Amino acid sequence: MRQLEAWWAYASKCAQLPANVPACDLFWNAIAIISATILALAALYIARAMLRRILAARAEIARAAERVRVADADTMARYKADIDRLHAGVAEEKIEERIRQALNGRKAEGRPGASRDPEARG
């Protein structure tokens, strides 16, 4: 408690004296550091708030651009492919047979990516 009273007396004396008194250099340096810290924290808070608003605005612009680029849900549902209907009548054996025929056709044509020798693949 005495230490706090001594610091208070020192600060009170230095606040009344001119700033160029050598005995009060520590007090005025401490005041300058504290003031600079408070100003820096205030500037950081303001810059952070501004940056947050700018980023939120950019994100909203990006979301709006994406909404314009992609059709709405009703339009997407209207043009959605009915995959079940496309493959409803095709049995698995037919699919396997169609794949074999396509591969044989590729082999016969000599198209790139189709190996003539099945053993050469593995």
Task: Please explain how this structure is put together.
The protein has helices at residues 2-16, 25-69, 73-78, 83-86, 92-109, 118-121. It is mostly helical and 122 residues long. The protein has 2 domains: 1-80, no CATH class; 81-122, no CATH class. The model has no long low-confidence stretch (mean pLDDT 83).
Helix content: over 70%
Shape: rod-shaped
Share in β-strands:
under 5%
Average pLDDT figure: 83
Low-confidence stretches: none
Gyration radius (Cα, Å) is 40 Å
Largest sheet: none
Topology:
Elements (H helix, E strand, L loop, with lengths): L1 H15 L8 H45 L3 H6 L4 H4 L5 H18 L8 H4 L1
Distinctive features:
single chain, 122 residues, mainly alpha, 6 helices, 0% strand, rod-shaped
In short:
By secondary structure, this protein is an all-alpha fold.
